[in-house]
């Protein structure tokens, strides 16, 4: 009986190892390891992430600006402001990211990184109180909305102010200027969760895939103006240097348990014959 137990243990261990043969490296992980991030910093508190939403008078589409007050030197103080204009919450968009678009930031701490897709031709605009007047009206309006948002009594970041002016430049990118893949983002939360994603702009030249709604069964494409979606590429809670995805095919589970039953039946039958 002891020998039979040993055989069964060996079979079970082998069956659990079978799915390991199906582990496949995540190709996207290699891509994000090679990205040269333009700006990286720690979000210490939820208030360090703000969303500036214009009024209907300012913008009928109310296109939002995500504003990040980050700490690059890890001294607990904000020393860089990054602003991303054009990101909208579009639920029917491919790979829509709940991680980036979370309505309420949870917990303290998170390392955020951003980069522009060089192929898009976009550039960062470094805006200060001294040079804001040199930009177009749209950029000036976006900057004013950012300043108003950061000046809210709920934000209270005294280290970013010199009197009534921002101490640091706002590093702004307008993703709506072109369509297609326009940028990359990465979030590493304090619990070790890693989320990689990209920014893709949709518009008349690159519409969202056709879909139908409950009232209209005719497929149609949307939108008719440019907007950007934060798309989720991968999520991992593994150590950063060992990021991979594990495929666990249902077929392998069936094969494993079938093998256990077959071998157990064979051994048990032989043992009964000997007796």
Kindly describe this structure:
With 275 residues, the protein is of the alpha+beta class. The chain is 23% helix and 30% strand. The protein has four helices and 16 strands. It has helices spanning 2-17, 27-34, 137-150, 250-274; strands spanning 23-24, 39-42, 49-52, 64-70, 80-87, 110-116, 125-127, 161-162, 165-166, 170-174, 180-189, 194-202, 208-211, 220-222, 227-236, 245-246. It has a five-stranded antiparallel beta sheet, with helices on one face. A hairpin with a 2-residue loop joins strand 8 (161-162) and strand 9 (165-166). Helix 1 (2-17) packs antiparallel against helix 4. The protein starts with a helix and ends with a helix. The model is unreliable at 18-28 and 240-251 (pLDDT under 50).
Short description:
This protein is α+β, with helices and mostly antiparallel strands and 275 residues long.
Rounded to the nearest angstrom, the radius of gyration is 26 Å
The count of helical stretches stands at 4
Uncertain runs are 18-28, 240-251
One letter per element, helices H and strands E, the order comes to: HEHEEEEEEHEEEEEEEEEH
- In order across it, which strands form the biggest sheet? 2-6-11-12-15
Structural class: alpha+beta
Proportion of residues in helical segments:
10-25%
Count of strand segments: 16
Mean pLDDT: 80
The rounded distance between the terminal residues' Cα atoms is 12 Å
Strand content: 25-35%
Largest sheet: 5 strands, antiparallel
Mass-distribution shape = globular
């Amino acid at each position: 009986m002891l020998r039979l137990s040993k055989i069964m243990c060996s079979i079970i261990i082998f069956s659990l190892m079978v799915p390991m043969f199906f582990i496949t490296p995540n190709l996207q992980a290699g891509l994000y390891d090679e990205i040269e991030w333009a700006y990286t910093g720690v979000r210490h508190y939820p208030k360090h992430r703000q969303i500036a939403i214009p009024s209907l008078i300012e913008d009928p589409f109310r296109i939002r600006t995500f504003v990040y007050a980050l700490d690059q030197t890890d001294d607990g103080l904000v020393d860089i402001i990054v602003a991303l204009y054009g990101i909208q919450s579009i639920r029917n968009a491919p790979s829509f990211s709940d991680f980036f678009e979370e309505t309420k930031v949870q917990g303290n701490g998170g390392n955020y990184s951003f980069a522009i897709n060089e192929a898009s031709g976009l550039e960062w605009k470094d805006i200060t109180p001294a040079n804001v007047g040199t930009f177009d009206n749209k950029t000036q309006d976006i900057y004013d909305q950012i300043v108003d948002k950061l000046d809210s009594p709920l934000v209270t970041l005294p280290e970013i102010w010199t009197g009534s002016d921002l101490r640091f430049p706002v590093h702004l990118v307008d993703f709506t200027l072109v369509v297609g893949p326009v940028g990359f983002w990465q979030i590493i939360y304090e619990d070790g969760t890693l989320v990689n994603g990209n920014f893709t702009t949709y518009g008349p030249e690159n519409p969202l895939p056709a879909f139908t709604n409950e009232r209209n069964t005719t497929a149609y494409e949307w939108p008719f103006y440019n907007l950007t979606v934060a798309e989720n590429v991968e999520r991992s809670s593994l150590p950063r240097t060992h990021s991979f995805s594990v495929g666990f095919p249902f077929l392998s589970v069936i094969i494993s348990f079938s093998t256990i039953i077959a071998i157990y039946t064979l051994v048990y039958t032989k043992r009964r014959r000997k007796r």
